[in-house]
Amino acid sequence: MSPEMLTDLQALMPEIWLVAAIVVTLTADLILGHGRTARTVTGVVALAGVVGALLALGEQDTSVPARAFGVLSVDGYAWFFRALIISATGLVILYGIIFRGLEDRTRNEFHPMLLGAAFGGCLLVSTDNLLMLVLGMEMLSLPSYIMAGWQKRERRSAEAALKYLVYGALASGLMLFGFSLLYGMSGSLWLPDIGLAITEQWELGGELGRMLVVGSTVLVFAGIGFKVAAFPFHFWAPDVYEGSPAPVTAMLAVASKAAGIGLLLRFVDGAFLGMVVSEDWLARLGSVTAVIAAVTMTYGNITAVKQTNVKRLLAYSSIAHAGFLLMGVAVMLTATGDDRAAVETGQQATLMYLATYYFGTLGAFGCLMALADRFGAEDLDDYEGLGRQAPWIGVMFVVFLASLTGLPPTAGFVGKWFVFRAAISSGLDWLAVVAALNAAVALFYYMKIPVSLFLRGGDQPRVADVPGLGLVPRVANLSILVLAAATVWLGLMFDDLIAWVNASLL
Amino acid sequence: MIGLEHYLYLSGVVFTLGLCGVMMRRNVILVLMGVEIMLNAANLALVAFNKFMLPGADGTVAPDGQVFVFFTIAVAAAEVAVALVIAVALFRRLDTVNVDDVANLRW
Amino acid sequence: MEQLLFFLMAGGMVAATLATIFARNPVYSAIFMILSFAATAGLFVMLDAYLIAVVEVLVYAGAIMVLFLFVIMLINLRSDELEGLKVNPLMVIAAGTFLGLMSKAVSDLGPAVQSRANDLEGTPALVAETLFTEYAVPFEAVSLLLLAAILGTVVLARRSQDA
Questions:
Q1: Residue B94 touches partner C, C-beta closer than 8 Å
Q2: Which residue, A58, A309, C107, C127, has most beta carbons within 10 Å?
Q3: Per residue in A358-375, pLDDT tens?
Q4: Who's near A30: CB < 8 A, 6+ residues apart?
Q5: Do B53 and C118 touch (CB under 8 A)?
Q6: CA A492 → CA A216, A439, A486, distances in Å?
Q7: CB proximity list for C20: less than 8 A, separation 6 or greater
Q8: Check: complex ipTM more than 0.90
Q9: H or E, element range at A269
């Protein structure tokens, strides 16, 4: 084995850990059946795979961007997204173990599905080759479709899987056609070459040539828009988020969205910003993205106000957060081509927001599942008085919701502050105003949950407490506690986070 | 003389037909067939582009487009298998494969 | 000769695709779709993409369509559930516009392509060389994708014990 190949393999180590965990969990499931032992073994192996992947990731030095096996970029950017995706998967595995909705019989096969989706997400964010992008996207999506329908006996779950699948397949069809046009325009599957070709086509091509650029961009953006649930491609999201089993919803809202944003930023940066681009084209694209961001967050927030099912409420709010994430992308596109500092401001804002969104959302879903696990509570009405029954979870829930709203002193405030600052610095003042109004609306509906938890209801809760916490729920609660601590800590001491994000820019 | 445009017009027509199939048929199986038609049109465009690509400095052309098609066919096969099993699971539960009947989710 | 062949294949492909999306009976749709894929494979041969043409027939027309037919038989729709295309005028206009824009846009393709066909021949040896060198990692990843598909299919298709 040549030394180059060893280095390449080292770069791929996190993914190899994930694949190894998939193989071992499947084999264990085959050998041990689906009894209690098998459940313990597969759970432990899956978590060990995630920990191994994170440790392998930690050993990587990405200060100098490198390539592995030709198609993978080993840079800080990929590192950032892989860390988010893999660690989120680890937490979701933990949630999956306590989640009551899964049949015991299918619990073991759930881990390989999650790990497979994480593997796909990792590939998706660490490549700038179109072929690899398509493959990573499918590798992430296919297990997600299956997991959305995991509770076969529940009608909502089966329907969610179908809906997700039909729209997902349509999105990948549109994106693939867009990619084929890009390939024809540039003669290459590599994003940097495509960036050059787009610039040339826009500057030198006639009216018709420009149409080709617009057409292929629209097709590709439609595909990515589906993935991150941006308006007007958001309509699958609430139903799928509500119908899927709760751990899967957490996975879709965090890991899948992070991978989609990772793809979007790399695409925007590679295909549109790699060189001195036509400012005219970028300005148009930037203003369209800004409008989409504004509409996405407004739609998500306004619709969330009416919701009474907590999972559905979080689903709509997750659409709204996609709008905030797109604000950073709009800033990147509005910045004129050779102004690299402005591009980086937008990118930094998106990554900061994503990191803070990660803690808030995973934590909120953890609390949701903990409450569902103990009390079977799903609706706002069920939550009445639960804060007094389970004060720890209630308080942590409030912390996460405050972070999602963007209240100081939580991490969410830092994320919001960065996107607002980026928008204002690039002259998108109107977008910042819209976003501020949206944050106020978000405060209104997020606070319905703590009001239900602590202020409503008598001394007797409406739903029964299931006593006797096992070991796994305790570990899960502990992990939620860690997330809550991180949320507050990052809200106060965010220098490390900024340094990390700055090291992860493209 | 058949040129690149001919293939691209054909690909565009077939892609549009596939899209129409997805949008206007209510049977899930037919919707999936529409998606497959769209993917097939994209494959045709990729191979045609590859055949009419300007050769590189050494006078050869890399078969990138064809390799891409190779992968999309594999991906499509996996996607169809998963899609059909989801349709079957839904059919067992609801006794229908009509997307309009999935009204519970406010299509 | 070349023109005749092209228009034969292209006409067959468009007609078969039209029949696919219009047919009331899904079985007919599936069979017309096999025809459409066969015509595509013929076009691939005309483009000198021999390996892809074979794969298209084997995987698409063979495996995928058999799977479709199998599921259609399994579901066995009652005749009152059969229905054709619901024509939505708005969609037709949108599709027409898209097609018009597309056909105009491809007439100015930029410098990466030439009007004359190059001498690329998609023989198995050539495609395999690229596949196993430059794209070795995606090739391995596809195996995992298929594994995930198999696993998911088994889990979802298996009847629950107590259902």
A1: no
A2: C127
A3: 999 999 999 888 888 777
A4: none
A5: yes
A6: 43, 20, 10
A7: B21, B33, B37, C29, C30, C32, C33, C36
A8: yes
A9: none
Partners for C (CB, 8 Å, 3+ pairs)? A, B
Q: In this structure, what is the dihedral angle of CA atoms A205, A207, A208, A209, given to the nearest 10 degrees?
A: 30
3-state secondary structure of A187: coil
Residue with tokens 């965010």: A494
Q: Is A339 helix (H, G, I), strand (E, B) or coil?
A: coil
Considering only CB atoms, which chain C residues are within 8 Å of B54?
111-114, 118
* Residue at token pair 């106020």: A440
Q: Which amino acid is at C78?
A: R
> Distance from B85 to chain A by nearest Cα, in Å?
9
Q: Which residue in B has a C-alpha nearest to residue C158's C-alpha?
A: B89
Q: Give the pTM.
A: 0.92
Q: How far is Cα A334 from Cα A428, in angstroms, rounded to an integer?
A: 9
- Quick one: pLDDT band at residue A283, thresholds 50, 70, 90? confident
In chain C, what residues touch A131 (CB-CB under 8 Å)? 135, 138
The residue of chain C nearest to residue A152, with distances taken between CA atoms, is C156
Residue A215: pLDDT band (50, 70, 90) is: confident
Which range of residues forms the domain containing residue B48? 4-105
Contacts of A25 (CB under 8 A, 6+ apart): A42, A45, A46, A49, A108, A111, A112, A115
pLDDT of residue A239: 86
> What DSSP character marks residue A127?
B
Question: Could you give phi then psi for residue A70, rounded to 5 degrees?
Answer: 80, -45
The CATH number that applies at residue B90 is 1.10.287.3510
Contacts of A15 (CB under 8 A, 6+ apart): A53, A119, A122, A123
Backbone phi and psi for residue A460, each to the nearest 5 degrees, phi listed first: -90, 120
> Quick one: DSSP state of residue A377?
-
Domain count, chain B: 1
For β-strands A66-68 and A72-74, DSSP reports them as antiparallel
Rounded CA separation A116/A479 (Å)? 23
Name the residue facing C10 among B10, B26, B49 (closest C-beta): B10
**Would you say A445 and A302 are in contact if contact means Cβ atoms under 8 Å apart?**
no
Chain B positions in Cβ-Cβ contact with residue C46 (cut-off 8 Å): 2
First to last CA, chain B: 47
Neighbour-count burial for A104-128, b at 16+ CB within 10 Å, e otherwise:
eebbbbbbbbbbbbbbbbbbbbbbb
B74 chain-A contacts, CB cut-off 8 A: none
* Distance in angstroms (rounded) separating the CA atoms of residues C30 and C69: 7
* Burial grade of A386 (CB within 10 A; 0-12, 13-18, 19 or more): buried
